Amino acid sequence: MDPVANAKTPARLRQESLSKLPTTVKTPMYERTDLTPGIVHIGLGNFHRAHQAWYIHRLMQQGLAHDWAIVGAGVRSYDAVMRERLLAQDCLTTLIELGPNGMSAEVIGPMIDYLPIEENNAALIHAMADPATRIVSLTVTEGGYFLDANSGAFDFDHADIRHDAENPNQPRTAFGAMVAALRRRRAECLNPFTALSCDNLQGNGTILRNCVVGLARMSDPELANWIDRRGAFPNSMVDCIVPATTDQLVSQCRALGVDDRAPVSHENFRQWVIEDAFCAGRPPLENVRAILTNNVHGYETMKLRILNGGHQLLANVGEVLSVPTIADCMKDPDIVAFFRKVQFEEILPHVEAAPETTASEYLELIESRFANTAIHDTTRRVAFDGSARHPGFLLPSLRDALASGSSANGLALAEAFWCRMCAGIREDGSEITPNDPQWESLNSTAKASKADPELWLEQGFYSGDFGISTQFSNAFARWLTLIWQRGSRAAIAEYVANGST
Predict the structure, then answer these.
(1) CATH topology classification for 297-498
(2) Domain regions of the chain by residue span
(3) Across 202-214, average pLDDT
């Protein structure tokens, strides 16, 4: 049955209008008035609603986890727009699944509130200090963890971190707010909450522990020791392709019968692998096929390098060549040849098999997901924040390739495409507007690198092995020069034809 053809006049999404939605749209079977909070989630964007919130919703549909409802939170001024939209529809979200054979819609309701966005984060601190809060989860992006570009360690010298250390009761950052809440919990003889990162970082729980404990130690070493000893920071791996919301998606949602001002689309695939290390209880996530394990590393390495790294292989050159979406990149014979050659020769050899799948089997799955034309995932969205994504997703493979003495020629080409993209103009002459928190610096360096490629490699991203590797620097310079002189397709053709060097 086609849900669009059977849709009624769109009903404005609110709790009282759920019964008016078309029968083709699934709705919560639980009484939302019976839900009580257990999770505070910071950084409540599309991915969280399509992924973590969906898992909690599925548990609630089974009659479980009604005391694990989600309270949304943000620490940046722009979060206020999403807060207003979601509160206007009682924190309900329409999820639109886009599969190869059509679309379907489901309204989920595990979120019951969205905290005010305040400069001193007072409401957030109060909510996290509440004994009912047992998990504080985050999706603040890879660039939101204040990691030093050179070492990857927590940046104690960042202005916002110094502010939070000097003003612990009026923090600016999510981590400062977490420390303030944990200070209150300790003073009231409460246990810490579990801090759960859901961002695409290798060892994200370990990184989050370093951020929170490190910041606490700057102002209160005893509190830092208590958090480190009593708290929990599970590592996790999250996976689902979730495009940005567009006007077209809002219209599609209306065609399905739901007037939702902030719907979310997603592919027909999800995975959540979590280290089973919680200090204050957890929902029974294994009941909805989340993988609870003490060995997250294998899953996350495979996903970060093959999927997230693969996204960067496609998106940067796709932007330069004006290819609008990831699915379009997978239909472009030149781009997909480049993608597959780098994957098979320079990424997969350095990725160990995860339980129940090999690296090559996982790549086959990724290729089919990327090729899903129903997912309008733009190259611009995927290319965003390359200054965090390249160090996290591609440079680890480059490091392993150089250490083993194997080819890194295609990875050098990938870095040249990133540099070319950051110059801010496509090969057809159209402008690439700023798309990175460090865009101003990246843009000026990329333009200067046209004449002197070494300038790009002098940035902190390439410290250590990369900067001193003649193999890598020579390959990068050769590719960047070729791209500027003859174009991206000529560079791909030479790489594909001449093999690994």
Answers:
(1) N-(1-d-carboxylethyl)-l-norvaline Dehydrogenase; domain 2 (1.10.1040)
(2) 11-158+168-293, 297-498
(3) 96
Q: How far apart are CA 307 and CA 329, in angstroms?
A: 14
Q: Which two tokens stand for residue 241?
A: 């392709």
The residues that bridge with 104 in the sheet, in sequence order, are 97
HSE (side-chain half, CA atoms, 13 Å) at 246: 12
Dist. CA 55–CA 288, nearest whole Å = 7
Angle between helix axes 204-219 and 174-187 (nearest 10 degrees) is 70
What is the residue-wise DSSP string for 237-296? EEE---PPP-HHHHHHHHHTTEE-SS-EEE-S--EEEEES--SS----GGGGT-EEES--
| pTM greater than the 0.70 cutoff | yes
Report the distance separating Cα 274 and Cα 233, nearest Å.
10
Q: Dump pLDDT digits (tens) for 231-290.
A: 999 999 999 999 999 999 999 999 999 999 999 999 999 999 999 999 999 999 999 999
Looking at domain 11-158+168-293, what is its CATH homologous superfamily?
NAD(P)-binding Rossmann-like Domain (3.40.50.720)
Q: Which of 438, 474, 439 shows the shortest CA–CA distance to 454?
A: 474
CB burial of residue 13 (10 Å; 0-12, 13-18, 19+):
buried
| CA separation, residue 375 to residues 245, 310, 364 (Å) | 11, 16, 18
CA 97, distance to chain mean position in Å, is 18
